[in-house]
Amino acid sequence: MAEKPEPVRVLYCQMCGLPAEYCEFGPDFEKCKPWLIQNAPDLYPDLLKEANDKQAEKVANQLQAVGISSSGDGGGVREGQADSSGSNAASKPEEVKRLPGGKIKKKDKQEVVIEKIVRNKRKSITVVKGLDLFGVKLSDASKKLGKKFATGASIVKGPTEKEQIDVQGDISYDIVEFITETWREVPESAIFFIEDGRKVPAA
C-alpha cells in the first residue's frame, strides 16, 4: 500500500505575512531580514553571511577605536601614524575588506559597481551601487531601470548602510550601455562588475 504523502508545510514570515521564500519581493524586505536569519537561514544564506560580516566589522571597529585612543595625543591623525610607522598601514585595507559583496573602496572614489547575486539557485538579482556618487538620484534611477527592463527595482541599504538599487533578474548583459546612455555623467571606464569576488572593468 502506497504511503500517504505528507502535506506541504509553508513557513510564513511573521513580519510581512508572505511565505518566507517570497519575502524579498514583499513591501519591506529590510524588516523581514532579522526574522528570516533566525527562522529561515537556509532560504537566505546571503543574509546570514551579511549578519556575520556586520558583527565582524563591529568588533573590528571597536578594536580599532581602542587602538587609536590608546596611542596617546597623536591618536586623532591616522595618516600621520601611517607615515611614522608602517605597521599601521595594514589597517587601511580593512575599509575595502569589510564589504562582503560590492567591495567598493573609499567613499570618495567615483565608480559604479554591478553585481549579479543568485539566491536559492534560481532567483537572480542585479545590484547596482555608486550611481549616487555621480549625482544621479537613486529614486529616479530605480524607476528608469525597472521600466527599461520590465522588472522590479528598489532602493535598499547595502551591507555598509549605503543605498543601492536591487533589480530583479539578470540584466547585467546590457545595463552598462543603458547607464552610459541615460546618465552621460557616468563614463564607461568608471563601471565595474564583480565576478568571482573580483572587480572587473566593464570597458
Automatic annotation (TrEMBL):
This is Translation machinery-associated protein 22. PROSITE patterns: SUI1. One of its GO terms (biological process) is formation of translation preinitiation complex. It comes from Dendrobium catenatum. GO terms for cellular component: cytoplasm; ribonucleoprotein complex; ribosome. It holds the Pfam family SUI1. It is found in: Cytoplasm. It comes from the Eukaryota. Belongs to the DENR family. Keywords: Cytoplasm, Ribonucleoprotein, Ribosomal protein. The keyword Iron does not apply. One of its GO terms (molecular function) is mRNA binding. Residues 112-183 form the SUI1 domain. Residues 65-102 are annotated as: Disordered. The SUI1 domain may be involved in RNA binding. The keyword Endoplasmic reticulum does not apply. SUPFAM superfamilies: eIF1-like. Interacts with the 40S ribosomal subunit.
